[in-house]
Every structure is written in structure tokens, then in C-alpha cells.
Amino acid sequence: MLPRLKNIHLARRFRSHGLHAVLFAVLALTLVTGCKPETMTANGVVAMFGHLGLGQGDFTYPRALSVDSKNRIFVVDKSARLQRFGPTGTFQTGWSMPERVAGKPIGLYVHDDGRVFVADTHYHRVMVFDADGVELARFGREGYGDGEFQLPTDVAVDSEGFIYVSEYNGNDRVTKWSPTFEFVSVFCEGEIDGKVMRRPAAMDFDSEGTLWVADACNHRILGFDREGKLLASWGSMGREPGQLRYPYDIDCLDDGTILVCEFGNHRLQWFDKAGNSTRVWGKQGRRPGELWAPWGAVGAPDGRVYVVDSLNARVQVLELQ
Description:
Elements: H1 8-16, H2 18-33, E1 45-49, E2 62-67, E3 73-77, E4 81-85, E5 91-96, E6 107-110, E7 116-120, E8 125-129, E9 135-139, E10 141-142, E11 148-149, E12 152-157, E13 163-167, E14 173-177, E15 183-189, E16 191-192, E17 195-196, E18 200-205, E19 211-215, E20 220-224, E21 230-234, E22 247-252, E23 258-262, E24 267-271, E25 277-281, E26 296-299, E27 305-309, E28 314-318
Parallel strand pairs: 10-11
Antiparallel strand pairs: 1-28, 2-3, 3-4, 4-5, 6-7, 7-8, 8-9, 12-13, 13-14, 14-15, 16-17, 18-19, 19-20, 20-21, 22-23, 23-24, 24-25, 26-27, 27-28
């Protein structure tokens, strides 16, 4: 028998939503038996969690996620809430951004030390929390100069603790900040490899220290060394393997490949560092294993891939061979 559900909200969802009830039953049985969950779809989905709503575990247009070293999943949505889930999608805790009238965050990064960095986009700043939602710091202000932001989109941190913030809406650049949140320099901006950077939407460091940037409105990926020198530039607009359409997220995986989430193509795509496509996953749709305008994807320490399926108001969990 399944253990008694103590969360009233989860119990309501279990009764009222047939598909989600089946999914939570699978997750609950996994917790009881300790067995690996069965694959739900032919393309590797083992679980899903979340649906449209404002309750615990619900989402209103989720737009970014990150996974910490404990395989806990953090998701921010368009209600300006952050929620933390266990590896199986069980709601753990959540909190709201201090201000939300002007707009909602679109970027999220969890550091190995447990700090949660949020690109508080429409307030032109970065907020830093602990894993339970206690505010630790905030930095940046609105503007176009040094130490100022225009609609920050994402945060990355290098091995020395320096912080990198991407922006758009006229700035369209990446700036570098000290570990104590002081402005250091403009890392990259302007014309790069023949095109002016347009909406750098996401960033991530690989194991060699290269910063990879999803230059979303140019439908390409850029790689830079620690000094801001361009090392790689690949991608063009299209729907074929190797092409991109509004890459909104990027994650450097432990095996050396680069995972790109394509908002415009409703899919994930894996590349080697030379820009060769090695795998494509997903298509537009509402069913398990399909995506609708995904904003983010990340590989977890346990090897799973978590995808923010934004217009389906859920997270899909993949185990791929």
C-alpha cells in the first residue's frame, strides 16, 4: 500500500488529475521500494511534476531551473516564486521574491556552496539566497554603465568565485563581478564573430574554464576564455540537427558535451565543443515526452536531465541511454 499522504494539496492533485495521479503513484512506489522508476515514454521520460496553479508544487509559466549537489531542484516561475523539490519532484520549500510588480525573474543558478543566485530581471539586479530562501546579498542597479544592469538574464560563477551576469535590452553583454559583489569589468559585448550579441540568455562554465554563452537572438553559441577572448562560435537559425532557434539555456555536462534548450524549436540538443550535434530530443506537444516553449534544462549530478516545460507548466525528468 502507498504511505498515507500528509500533504493535503498533493492529495487533492492525486485525486483530481488522472495523469498526474499515475505519475505521483510511480514516484511514491519508488520511494517505498527503492527501485529505479520505469521509463514512462520511449524517449526516456521517467517522471514529471507540477501543473498549472499557485499552490505548493504548482507552476505559473516556469522559466528557469537549477540543480544543486544534493540533486535538489530549484525552479522559478512567472509568479516570482522559487520552489525547491527533492530528486523525485517532492515539494520541499518555497519563497517569493521581495518585489514582483515590475516583472519576474528569468534566470537561476545554484552554486556548489548552496547559494542560490537569481537574475531579478525587471529589477535590474541579482539576488542571492541560501537554499531555504534567506536573503544573503543583492547587487546591481538599473542603468547602462559599470555596475549597472539592463534586464539581467543569467548568472554563472567561475572556479575562483568571480560572478558573471548576462543582460539584454540595450546592454546585451556579460559583466564580471568579484566574489564580494563588486563590479570588475565588461567581459564581452558588441560585435562578436561578425554579429552584435543579441540577448545572451544563459551561460555555463565547462570543466576547462571556458564560459559558454547562449546568444539567443543570433541563434548561436559562443565560447570564451577567462579573459573574454572568443574561442568558439557556432550555430545558425533553423530546425535541422546542428541548427538552433532561440537557445534559452545551456548546461555543460560532466561528459564534456553541451546541452542546449531551444525555446523556439521545443527541444533539447547536445553538442560537442566544436559545435557538432550529437543528439536531439523532444518535439512540440502536450503529452509526456513532448515540450511546449521550454526555457531551461540542466543535467543533475545523478545523470538525469531536468527540463522546464514552460507552457505545459511542468518539469520533465529524463534518463537517457
